[in-house]
Amino acid sequence: MAKRAYGLIIFDLDGTLIDSKRDIANSINFALGSVGLNPLSETEISGFVGHGVRALIGQVLGSLEDSRLPMLRKNFQEHYDQHLLDTTQLYAGITELLKSLPEVELAVVSNKPHRMTEKILKGLNIEGFFKWVVGGDTYPVMKPNPQVLSNILAQSQKNRERLMVGDSSVDIQTGRACGIDTCGVTYGFRPLEELKAAGADILVHSVIELQQVLAGEPD
Question: Into how many domains does the chain fold?
Answer without folding.
Answer: 2
